[in-house]
Amino acid sequence: MRWACEYRSKSGTRGLMIFSAKDLNAAQIYLEEMTNYYGHRHVFNLNELVEGGIDELYRVFPRLATVVDRGDVPGKKVQ
User: Fold this and answer.
1) Hey, is 21 helix, strand or coil?
2) Which of 1, 3, 33, 48 is buried most, with the most CB atoms less than 10 Å from its CB?
3) Phi and psi, residue 60, nearest 5°
């Protein structure tokens, strides 16, 4: 199964982590490890990815999907 969650590192960086785990329990254990061993300050919004496409990420994480165009780097704005 594929999973995704949001995280915030100690430096304040926010991001999206995509990973595989056999079930919900294993995914939750991985989130605990991200905080305890990998230095992320806050890990939240765990979601199972069913469809597997980028459109699913935009739907499940709309706050992170809203990107502003920066020069030659196109962004996708979710309405």
Assistant:
1) coil
2) 3
3) -75, -30
| Structure tokens that stand for 61 in this block | 């994480």
Residue type, 56: E
pLDDT digits (tens, 9 = 90+) for 2-38: 999 988 877 877 788 899 999 999 999 999 988 888 8
The total number of residues shown for the chain amounts to 79
Q: For 73, which DSSP code? A: B
Please report, for the chain, the start and end positions of each structural domain, with discontinuous segments joined by +.
2-65
Give the Cα separation of 40 and 13 in Å (integer). Answer: 9
- Residue of 36, 30, 38, 37 whose CA lies nearest to 5: 30
pTM: 0.69
Residue 1: CB partners within 8 Å, gap ≥ 6? 20, 21, 22, 23, 27, 48, 49
Q: What pLDDT shows up at residue 21? A: 96
Structure tokens given for 69: 């165009």
